[in-house]
Write a structure and sequence with these properties.
About 35% of the residues lie in helices and about 10% in strands. The chain is an alpha/beta fold.
C-alpha cells in the first residue's frame, strides 16, 4: 500500500486544524500565487518589436482605436502566467474524475494522433479531395448502427441535447406524415436528464413527468395510465440517472408503441451497455449517443461534443441532411432533399465535428467488438466495487447492484451538521475532484459516483479509503474539517451564493 493509501486508511490520521501557513510571496510550496495578466502590466514592455505603420483615417470612418489596452509583458512572463494557470486546473490526466452521469474517462493518445491526421481539411473542399474523411464518417456510421441495431444514423448533431432535438424533430415529422400531428405530449420519467423535458418543450411539446418506484425505476403502472392518444413519445434514459437498468424496458416499449407513440432513449449512459445490449432490440425508436462519453473523445469546458442519433426503420426516412452516401464513383454527400424526400432538413452547418468522429472511430477500431464489450463490463464492475465498499459508510440510495455509477444520498450525514457540499469541499483537500452532487434530484443530497472502466483498483482503493475516512470524521463531529474546507488550494472557501449573484466579470484598472 502506498503512503497516500496508508494515510487514507490510517485510524491515527488527524486532519490539522491549523490554517494554511501564510508566506511572504503568497506562494505555498509549488502553488504559485498568480495575479491577473493585466495586473502584471508594465506599460511599453513587449516581447515583440512592431514597425510603425501609417494608417489613413479615411478608411476607418472616424473609428480609429487609440489604444488596445493589452498588458505589457515579456515572453517568459506570458509563458509562465499561462503555465501556472494550467497547473490550477484539475484534469483527467492528473487524477480520478468521479463525476456521475458525465463519464470522464481517459482519452487515449492514439485517438489524438489520428485526429491530427485530418486537421488540415476544410468543409468547403471539393468532395473528390476529402474521400478519406467521408470514408471515416461512413465507417463510424456503420459501427454505430451495428452497436445499436438501428437502421439509420444522423451524424450532424453537435452534442447530446442537440441529438435530443434531432430525435424529437424526426418523431414530430413522422407523426405529421401519418396524419397524427395532433399528438403534443411527451412523457419524461422524473429521473431523466434535465435536458429531456427542456428539449421536448423547445420542440413545441408539453411535458408530463412520470414517477419512479421504490426501486429507482420507472413506475410502469403510472406510465401506462398516462398513455393516451395525445402522447407523441416517451423520453427515457437507460441505464437511468440513478445508475440503474430499467428492467421493464421491453414492457414499456410495447405499451408505448401500442399507444401509437415513439420511444426516445437518452443514450448518455450507453457506455454501460455498449457491446452487451443493442437498444434497437429493446424496442427503442431513436437514441442519441454522446461520442465524448461512450467512445472517449474529450469533452468539458463547452465542447467540442458530438451527439449522433440512431433511428429505427420507421424514423429512418426523416434523417436530417447532409449524410454520406456511397456511389459508383466513391463517397458523396446528400445535401438537398428531393420532391418526395421526408428528411427534416439541415440541423447544423456542414456535417458535424470531424475531430470527434476520428477519435471515436479510432477508439472503436483499437478496442474491437470484444474490447467494447469489456469497456461496459469493466465500467459496471468498477462502479459496483465502489458501491460494495462504501455502502456501510455512506448511504446507498437503492438496494442491489448498480450499472456504471453508484448513487448515495446524504442520510449518513444526518445530525452531523455536515452537508453534501461540505463533504465535497473536504474531498478537494484530499486531492480528489468531487463526484456529482445533488443530482439526480430524486434523492436527497445526492452523491453520484462514476469511476469509469479506466481506473485501476489501486486508485479506487485510495478513493474509497478517503471517503471512508471523511465519513468517519463527519460522524465523529469534526465539523471544522468540513466547514473550512478546502484549505490546501490556492483559493479557499468562498461565498458561492455571493459569487453567483454578484460576479465580477470585468477587471478595472486601479488608478
Amino acid at each position: 500500500m502506498s503512503h497516500s493509501q496508508d494515510i487514507a486508511h490510517s485510524k491515527d490520521y488527524v486532519f490539522s486544524t491549523e490554517t494554511t501557513p501564510q508566506t511572504f510571496t503568497g506562494n505555498q510550496g509549488l502553488f504559485m500565487e498568480e495575479p491577473l495578466i493585466f495586473e502584471q502590466d508594465t506599460p511599453g514592455l513587449t516581447g515583440v518589436d512592431w514597425p510603425d505603420v501609417e494608417v489613413q483615417d479615411i478608411y476607418l470612418a472616424g473609428l480609429r482605436r487609440q489604444s488596445i489596452d493589452l498588458p505589457g509583458l515579456s515572453e517568459p512572463q506570458v509563458v509562465r502566467h499561462y503555465t501556472r494557470l494550467s497547473q490550477k486546473n484539475y484534469s483527467i490526466d492528473a487524477g480520478l474524475y468521479p463525476l456521475g452521469s458525465c463519464t470522464m474517462k481517459h482519452n487515449p493518445r492514439l485517438n489524438e494522433k489520428v485526429a491530427r491526421m485530418f486537421s488540415d481539411i476544410h468543409p468547403l473542399q471539393p468532395i473528390s479531395t476529402v474521400q478519406g474523411a467521408l470514408a471515416v464518417i461512413h465507417q463510424l456510421s456503420n459501427w454505430l448502427m451495428a452497436l445499436t441495431g438501428m437502421r439509420a444514423v444522423a451524424m450532424t448533431p453537435a452534442a447530446g441535447a442537440h441529438g435530443e432535438l434531432c430525435g424529437l424533430m424526426a418523431i414530430k415529422a413522422a407523426l405529421k406524415a401519418r396524419g397524427e400531428g395532433h399528438r403534443s405530449l411527451v412523457l419524461v420519467p422524473e429521473s431523466a436528464h434535465g435536458t429531456n423535458p427542456a428539449t421536448a418543450a423547445a420542440c413545441g411539446f408539453s411535458v408530463q413527468s412520470i414517477p419512479a418506484n421504490d426501486r429507482g425505476r420507472v413506475d410502469v403502472a403510472a406510465l401506462k395510465k398516462a398513455l393516451n392518444p395525445d402522447v407523441a413519445a416517451i423520453m427515457l434514459t437507460n441505464p437511468n440517472t440513478c445508475g440503474l437498468f430499467e428492467t421493464d424496458i421491453i414492457e414499456i416499449a410495447k405499451a408505448v408503441h401500442e399507444a401509437g407513440a415513439f420511444f426516445y432513449c437518452d443514450g448518455a449512459n450507453f457506455n454501460a451497455i455498449v457491446g452487451k445490449v443493442r437498444p434497437g432490440d429493446l424496442g427503442i425508436d431513436c437514441m442519441h449517443i454522446n461520442l465524448h462519453k461512450t467512445f472517449s473523445t474529450p469533452h468539458g469546458g463547452g465542447g467540442p461534443g458530438a451527439g449522433p442519433v440512431v433511428l429505427s426503420k420507421d424514423l429512418a426516412p426523416f434523417t436530417p441532411l447532409p449524410y454520406v452516401v456511397m456511389t459508383d464513383k466513391g463517397f458523396d454527400l446528400k445535401e438537398q432533399a428531393g420532391n418526395n424526400d421526408l428528411s427534416i432538413g439541415r440541423l447544423k452547418g456542414f456535417h458535424g465535428q470531424m475531430g470527434m468522429f476520428t477519435r471515436a472511430l479510432s477508439y472503436m477500431m483499437s478496442h474491437g467488438k470484444d474490447g467494447l464489450k469489456q469497456v461496459a463490463e469493466d465500467a459496471v464492475l468498477n462502479a459496483n466495487y465502489v458501491l460494495a465498499c462504501l455502502k456501510n459508510d455512506l448511504t446507498a440510495s437503492f438496494e442491489g447492484p448498480c450499472m456504471h455509477e453508484a448513487l448515495f444520498d446524504d442520510s449518513f450525514l444526518k445530525g452531523t451538521e455536515v452537508t453534501t457540499l461540505d463533504f465535497a469541499k473536504a474531498m478537494i483537500d484530499e486531492g480528489f475532484h468531487p463526484m456529482t452532487m445533488y443530482f439526480p434530484l430524486v434523492v436527497s443530497g445526492a452523491l453520484l459516483i462514476e469511476p469509469t472502466e479506466c481506473e485501476s483498483k489501486e486508485t479506487l482503493d485510495q478513493f474509497i479509503g478517503t471517503l471512508k475516512y471523511l465519513a468517519t470524521q463527519a460522524k465523529q463531529g469534526n465539523k471544522k474539517l468540513f466547514h473550512e474546507a478546502p484549505r490546501c488550494t490556492p483559493r479557499k472557501r468562498m461565498d458561492e451564493t455571493k459569487a453567483a449573484r454578484q460576479p465580477i466579470l470585468k477587471w478595472t484598472r486601479k488608478l
